[in-house]
Amino acid sequence: MPDSLWTALALLLILEGLLPFAAPKLWREGFRHLTELTDGQLRFIGMTSIGIGLVALYLL
User: How many domains are contained in the chain?
Assistant: First the structure.
């Protein structure tokens, strides 16, 4: 179990680093847009991400 957790964390860091590495300008503009969203919009994005992750985890 701990090995799987570390593997998942490593994969998350790799995926999170791809866009800033490949297209820093696009990443910066996207991040700037995120900072302009309301709290409710950010919560909805977070809830949607959690839901998709749970469904994907269940299917795997």
Answer: 1
The span from the CA of 45 to the CA of 52, in Å, is 11
Q: Residue 14: inside a domain, yes or no?
A: no
**Burial class of 20 by CB neighbour count within 10 A (0 to 12, 13 to 18, 19+):** middle
Is residue 36 situated within a structural domain? yes
pTM above 0.85, yes or no: no
Q: What pLDDT, in 10s, does the model give residues 22-46?
A: 999 999 999 999 999 999 999 999 9
